[in-house]
User: Fold this.
Amino acid sequence: MHLELGIEGFIYKDLFNSLKLRELASDFDRFYFEMHPTAYVLFDAYRIQKGEGLKKTEIAEILIETSKAIEQFLIKLFKIEAEASLIQQKFHNEILIMRLKREFVKKGILKKKDKPENQSEERFSELTINYKNLQVKFAGAKWDDEELGFAQLITSLIDEIKVNDAQELKDQYALLEEYYFVRRILHPDSLSSWITSQSPKKLDFENLVEIDRPEFEIQEIITSHHTRKRDGFALTDKRNTTRQITSEIEYCMICHEREKDSCSTGMKEKDGTIKKNPLGIDINGCPLDERISEMHSLKEHGYAIGALAMIALDNPMCAGTGHRICNDCMKGCIFQKQDPVNIPQVETSVLTDVLNLPWGFEIYGLLTRWNPLNIDRPYALPYNGKKVMVVGLGPAGYTLSHYLLNEGFAVAGIDGLKIEPFTPEMTGNENNPPIPIYNYKKEIEKELNKRVLEGFGGVSEYGITVRWDKNFLTVLHLLLARRNTFTILDGVRFGGTITIDDAWELGFDHIALATGAGKPTIIDMKNNLSRGIRKASDFLMALQLTGAAKHDSMANLQINLPAIVIGGGLTAIDTATEALAYYPVQVEKFVLEVDELKLSLGENGLKSLFDREETILTEKYYNHGKQIIAERKRAEEKGEIPDFLPLLKEWGGVKLVYRKRLQDAPAYKLNHEEVHEALEEGIEIVENMIPLEAKLDEYGAVKSVVFERTGDNTTIEFPAGSVFIAAGTSPNITYEKEYPETFELDKKGKYFRSFEIMK
Assistant:
């Protein structure tokens, strides 16, 4: 679709031209001055003085007002006035609900000292009749959404009482208060879905995850009170609704107004040291110093593009952060004794709202190359003649590439993985712009269980599960691929395919190392290299990059239940959930493949191909696959999601075994939400167990693992057909090992030595 810009003198191609971006910045200045001269003068002074002499609160307000102007400018540039107004309207409705929560529930119901004496069903019936009559009179309300309708009714009454202090209105308001209160008491389930009826929970750091300790013989086994169904590798964790997001923002204290925005800056003791939470984790806040409170302030009033501009000021690669990726901001939230604000959900919602606008992808892309809020680099610079080779295209590599490109460097990103290219039409070149993306959902977004693995993004692609929307990786990949001075060279190993000397000979001026994790840690367990035992990181990578997780792929990783994951970090959690989700896919595909072979070879002909061990495995997989297919058929007939968990439990399920208490596990300390989700998917966690030995069957494959219980030193043996080791990894310093004395390492010889650049 052709993109015709709404600012005179600019065409789509110009958005990729540094000189034209400078002109666009000048046009924005004129637009801002004409729209709001007072605010513009303050912004211009802040820009000239680099913030010198201004309080943080003053800077925050200047940036907020400028973000609003950026939104209006981009709405005009992309000619999306009507669509942007719909977002405003959507948030206007939700703000009414927040008023209901704030002015009616919190200040009224929850603080009301005089509770209704009559809380009978008879009295509730009388109150309900009055409520229904008001619904008829207040026909303009959205009663198909009762919470919104109720909010419209109550806030309208509140506003009327402020203007007309009539007793009749007050009486009606009192009846509605009584109705709501009695309904909460007698029929709480009818309000359970209402945001206005939900309150934050107190935090008990020893019990951040609701768990069950069933009457097992082994008391160390932990399960969940609740389980949820999962089928394959579609997105497992849906994003919050607009209402839920608005509620999170309403819950936020907007702390920047008091310079208490610890979610961004962290918390410090009186002596200046970083505070720790009760789990011993530093409260650093956002490592990027993202202006979260300011973002919330903009989002609350429906400024989706303005909020994204605020995020992109400090975190232009925000498609790679947000929900289910990072949560340091939540740990730094001012609410330390109750549920924190779910900031990552809000950040992801801001990005999604913009992407879902017409030309939304183009708007986000432009904000990574042009953002007036960034007074140091408001637009990308032209090519400066210098070339940088970035080694590794994981989160560190692609983020560094972005910043280097904006500084005018040419960048060649190399990676050992195969990275799927885009079509020339999608990326464009120096002479021809790319095809503009009008509809993100239709042109970029794919169902995760059908999405082609691109290889781009390193650990974000192969090490993170489908709890996170990997379409955002495609967004980041395409944003960089469209930069004329950026090149991706895949299948290139630093130290093998290319060396440092090669890089200098090829004309590179700098080399940047973003090589990430290296070899996995080997644990001290007898027979730890036996068949059926593999490294967790290897499993996750293979699951993603081979396509084994897809039903239409021939790739098969062959895991066996029961399965055991040894470790207590987030990689262990991911491995456990994905192994449990993969097994039904594996055996279901196995049935289809065997049935095809039977048609061509005959049953006896097929059996003749297998030895005794293979025959046993074939019969097991085929039997399990048939049961999976039967459950899928049953669920389809009932219109339900298939429930594979009872079968998986019957076959042994997946246990995650950790050497200490659950509360001591890195996953619990760093992101207990992941532990909660894993338990709900049916993972069993076993604490206080140290692995001693893997026992093997007559074929040399693992059949069980012997553990030592900490405390009494007794041994416990768990059956296991597959074992995954998730004991951490070392940094990737392979080049230094292959070419000694090339780089300086730290004192322990584990990391590349860090240097501070002095300005």
Remarks:
- Residues 632 and 753 are 54 Å apart (CA to CA).
